[in-house]
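quick q for whoever's on today - can somebody do inverse folding on this one?? i tried earlier but teh output was garbage lol. tokens:
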């Protein structure tokens, strides 16, 4: 039975495990995402998320608690200054673990752990959506039909303009003939 076995041992003694998780947490604070094995990523999530919750309330006591775990002044100050402001309205779940597949050398299952609020791809902020271009047969048929109808309209307009110009041309030619005839008629009358 596994009673009381709450945290992952990761095959290390406690001092090694604590310093490894502290180093990984400092790297996560610095780079906002890191690649590691899936088990280490899950252990880091359990280690790191309570520290982020502590950083939401900036007090000397909370800073000392976080420093006891991280042991890095720069990481603690960045956690309390930048990250805590960004995750202020989030009630938990500050990190995301994404599986990446297996490592070539030893076939270990790899994962990427990242801070949720620093990923621009998954952000929920209102962005102007990029227009998607999908090519489907249905749309192609509609486009082809539109093009054919436009071509027919253009042809009809050309034919109408030609008909109008042809109709105008004989009228223009007839008008001088009638004038000539009338002038001939007038001349013969005189």
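ok took a stab at it. sequence:
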């Amino acid at each position: 039975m596994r009673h009381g076995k709450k945290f992952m041992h990761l095959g290390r003694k406690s001092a090694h495990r604590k310093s490894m998780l502290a180093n990984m947490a400092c790297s996560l604070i610095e780079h906002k995402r890191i690649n590691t094995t899936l088990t280490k990523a899950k252990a880091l999530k359990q280690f790191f998320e309570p520290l982020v919750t502590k950083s939401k309330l900036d007090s000397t006591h909370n800073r000392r608690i976080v420093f006891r775990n991280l042991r890095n002044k720069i990481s603690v100050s960045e956690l309390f200054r930048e990250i805590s402001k960004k995750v202020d309205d989030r009630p938990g779940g500050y990190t995301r673990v994404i599986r990446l597949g297996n490592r070539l050398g030893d076939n270990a299952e790899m994962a990427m752990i990242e801070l949720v609020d620093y990923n621009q791809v998954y952000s929920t902020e209102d962005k102007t959506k990029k227009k998607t271009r999908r090519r489907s047969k249905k749309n192609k048929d509609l486009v082809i039909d539109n093009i054919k109808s436009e071509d027919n309209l253009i042809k009809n307009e050309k034919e109408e303009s030609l008909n109008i110009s042809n109709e105008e041309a004989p009228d223009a030619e007839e008008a001088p003939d009638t004038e000539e005839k009338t002038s001939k008629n007038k001349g013969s009358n005189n």
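fwiw The two ends are 136 Å apart (CA to CA). also The mean pLDDT is 84. so keep that in mind when u check it
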